[in-house]
Amino acid sequence: MLNNSEKTKENATDEEFISNYLNSPKPVFIINKKGQISDVNDAFCQTVGVKSKDIVGRNFSDLYFLTDDAKKQMRYRNVSRLIGKETPYFTLDTISKNGEIISHQIDTKPLLKNGRIAGEIAFIKKTSKMEPEKYKTTMKKRIVKKDELKENMEILNAMDKIKKRDNEINKMKSELSDKYQDLITQKRQLEEINNKWRESEFDLDKRQKEIRNLRDEMERAQNKLRLKEEEIDDLKNQLKQNKTNFEEKNQELQKLGKQLEEEKKQIK
User: Fold this and answer.
1) DSSP per-residue codes, 165-226
2) What residue spans define the domains of the chain?
3) Burial of 194 by CB count in 10 Å (0-12 exposed, 13-18 middle, 19+ buried)?
4) What pLDDT is stored for residue 143 in this prediction?
5) Cα separation of 262 and 268, whole Å?
6) The domain at 4-130 falls in which architecture?
7) Is the overall model pTM greater than 0.70, yes or no?
8) Rounded CA gap, 114 and 239, in Å?
9) How many whole angstroms separate alpha carbon 172 and alpha carbon 184?
């Protein structure tokens, strides 16, 4: 279960509280009340073998790396958490790029915002691989279509041609030996060019990685912004409903006030 340092927020804000978990070395993922992955940390991506930009903002039912049973279990546990039920340890199975089934032991705790349950924070406590199922395959018997004698004759003729070519090759070897020294010099020059080329490729690859990281970070920030906008829209709708309820209550109070005034006049 969670230790005391994980249970208490002390004086930290909700954002700081979440950031502390995401920066921890433990694999962590966060699900909002709509069942969407709102954030993950690098340790989670490395453990499961995914990229954050491919899963942040998506509903867990759409996650390609979860087994069907895992999706059903996630749906049940998310609803249970939102209605206030305890969700102890459970096992979640994922599918690796190699088709292996990987079993993860998960622990969760409620994610509170402004004192209300807004989702849950989940931690991967332990990961283990399961042996994939082995499927038997049948091999078709090879059918020989050519006559073996004819094939042997063709082989003998080919060997005669090879001997003739060997004589020609021996003649060419004497010519090639004269050019060997020139080739060595050209090879050294080519190696120098290749070294410079590899250095250029390394620099280019480094720049491309930096560009990809910046693009991933931008997409991740855009997904976070979209989720924030959705939360703001929900709050606006809630405030609008509260305003309507307030106006209705205010009208009722005005009616009661008028009734009291009329009763006072009748008493006088």
Assistant:
1) HHHHHHHHHHHHHHHHHHHHHHHHHHHHHHHHHHHHHHHHHHHHHHHHHHHHHHHHHHHHHH
2) 4-130, 144-268
3) exposed
4) 35
5) 10
6) 2-Layer Sandwich (3.30)
7) no
8) 15
9) 18
